Amino acid sequence: MPFVNCFDVVEMVTDEATERFAPLFREDREAKNILHQYCDTLDLIAQEFNGESFEVEVDEINMTIGIKLECPDIVIQSEEHRFYALAARALAVKFSHGEGDNVAIEFVFPSIWEKTA
Length: 117
Known about the structure:
This protein is of the alpha+beta class and 117 residues long. The chain has three helices and six strands, in the order H-E-H-E-E-H-E-E-E.
């Protein structure tokens, strides 16, 4: 399966949410840039652990962004691994059973929207 870039998926979902939230809310450019950096790290994690897919969801009540990565297995052998740095920036990290025998890891990140004046 060809590798899918995390931010490509995130951008499709957040652009759609931005349209729904307008005109009451707009994207905060700096917050979206930070989210892009998180996606870059998720791409590295996906490459390291043979990630198979990204699933992105916006919680329309809390306006948080959930990014789920599915991979066959994940083994982290160092406390210095980038996974921990990313998890520290997330509001929540959830583990679940994915498709087949995959493990699914979901990172929930803060909102990228701000109320318009």
